[in-house]
Amino acid sequence: MAKKKPQHQKQKSTSSTGSNSFEKNKPNTILCEAQVVEVLPNTKFKVLLKDFDTVIDATPSGKIRLNHIRILKGDFVTVELSTYDLTKGRIVFRHKTNKPSNFNNEQK
């Protein structure tokens, strides 16, 4: 008689994909608030970091691209920086209002 193959159960993923998943800090990353200063070709942006008062290059994350979220000059965004290279960032969230609640000192 033929032996039955064991039935394998699919494992459920433990990662949360909620709307606030950007707030979960990945290892070796820094989350910063920023304002888009300039829009460049090939979905690149120059953003002004609130915490460091520097302008860096940033690209949108995969979720931003997949959901076709438009990022314009003057938008306030949350940027994820790698601790290895602080000159490049990834835009992980675009704030719906013009100014996020914790963006106190707007640059003049």
From TrEMBL:
Basic residues bias (residue ranges) = 1-11
Q: Residue ranges of the S1-like domain?
A: 33-96
CDD domains per the UniProt record, alphabetical? S1_IF1
**Listed InterPro entries:** NA-bd_OB-fold, RNA-binding_domain_S1_IF1, TIF_IF1
- Point to the regions of Polar residues compositional bias: 12-22
Cite the GO molecular-function annotations of the record: ribosome binding; rRNA binding; translation initiation factor activity
Q: Which UniProt keywords are given for this protein, alphabetically ordered?
A: Cytoplasm, Initiation factor, Protein biosynthesis, RNA-binding, rRNA-binding
Q: Which Gene3D superfamilies does UniProt cross-reference here? A: Nucleic acid-binding proteins (2.40.50.140)
Q: Where in the cell is it found?
A: Cytoplasm
Chain segments carrying region Disordered: 1-25
Q: What is its main location?
A: cytoplasm
Q: Name one GO cellular component term.
A: cytosol
PROSITE patterns according to UniProt = S1_IF1_TYPE
Q: What does this protein do?
A: One of the essential components for the initiation of protein synthesis. Stabilizes the binding of IF-2 and IF-3 on the 30S subunit to which N-formylmethionyl-tRNA(fMet) subsequently binds. Helps modulate mRNA selection, yielding the 30S pre-initiation complex (PIC). Upon addition of the 50S ribosomal subunit IF-1, IF-2 and IF-3 are released leaving the mature 70S translation initiation complex.
Family assignment from sequence similarity: Belongs to the IF-1 family.
Q: Partners and quaternary state?
A: Component of the 30S ribosomal translation pre-initiation complex which assembles on the 30S ribosome in the order IF-2 and IF-3, IF-1 and N-formylmethionyl-tRNA(fMet); mRNA recruitment can occur at any time during PIC assembly.
Q: What is this protein called?
A: Translation initiation factor IF-1
Q: Which organism is it from?
A: Spiroplasma platyhelix PALS-1
Q: What is the lineage of its organism?
A: Bacteria, Bacillati, Mycoplasmatota, Mollicutes, Entomoplasmatales
